[in-house]
Amino acid sequence: MTRDRDGAARMFDLDGRVAIVTGASSGLGASVARALASVGARVAVVARRRDRLRELAAEIDGLAVACDLSDLARVGSVVPEVVEGLGAPEILVNAAGNMFTTERAESEPLDAIRRTMDLNLVAPFLLAQAVFAHMRAAGRGTIINISSISGLVGIPGIPQASYAASKAGLSGLTAELAVQWARHSIRVNTVAPGFFRSEITGPLYESERATEYLRRNTPLPKAGTAEDIVGAVLWLASDAGSYVTGQTVVVDGGWTAR
């Protein structure tokens, strides 16, 4: 049997394709941007922190686009800047997200609820709308929304009602856009990570009690990292996932399989 390793590798080749990755100044967004660039994509990195973005853009020979995506009035400037700097996008990874309150559901302030929904759900929708015409003209495109297992199951002891609602909303948005835009060969999927160290989850990993809770409830015997999520994103961004759309792919070490 002849092994066509080069042929298999070509399925993940993104040579020359323009990608947008939000939330790219740290954590999963930065890891995704590096991974896409490593397989040939020309990557525009988007986040609030201009200094970090410039460093990453220089590292991957990409484009830094500074934008606070929670300010919905500014979201519309992102795609035109990418088109001018790199060309028409064929890949969009909505990795930006945050939690703006740790209050229990009955006490969540309205402002925090709205900020959470705007950043985690509305901004990804607006960016998807903005890339649509470019993907339709190209005859292909892929949109990947980064969600969370919090959008699928409740997590005891971690109050996050508006965050969970926003992430569940991404899966609904994904399914609807996938069906509406399939005729244009635009694929839309969601990746729902489990627990891994990030700026949001940092406090969990600083507590021995919390880390033991994570170990006890994660079937795989290892702690999750941002790099563990990247493979699923590469699969969905590339031709390797060319027949996958409308799905929420869970990458959680078995947490939700218990």
Task: Please provide a written account of the structure.
The chain has ten helices and seven strands. With 258 residues, the chain is α/β, with parallel strands linked by helices. The longest helix has 29 residues. It is 45% helix and 15% strand. The model has no long low-confidence stretch (mean pLDDT 93). It has a seven-stranded parallel beta sheet with strand order 3-2-1-4-5-6-7, with helices on both faces.
Q: What tags apply to this protein structure?
A:
258 residues; seven-stranded parallel beta sheet
Distance between the termini: 39 Å
Q: Please give the share of residues in helix.
A: 40-55%
Query: Which blocks of ≥5 consecutive residues have pLDDT under 50?
Result: none
Strand order of the largest sheet: 3-2-1-4-5-6-7
Content of β-strand: 15-25%
Main sheet record: 7 strands, parallel
Report the average pLDDT across residues: 93
SS element count, helices: 10
The structural class is alpha/beta
Provide a quick synopsis of the model.
The chain is built from 10 helices and 7 strands.
Write the layout of secondary structure elements.
Elements: H1 5-10, E1 18-22, H2 27-38, E2 42-47, H3 50-60, E3 63-66, H4 72-75, H5 78-85, E4 89-94, H6 110-138, E5 141-146, H7 161-181, E6 186-193, H8 202-205, H9 208-217, H10 226-237, E7 248-251
Parallel strand pairs: 1-2, 1-4, 2-3, 4-5, 5-6, 6-7
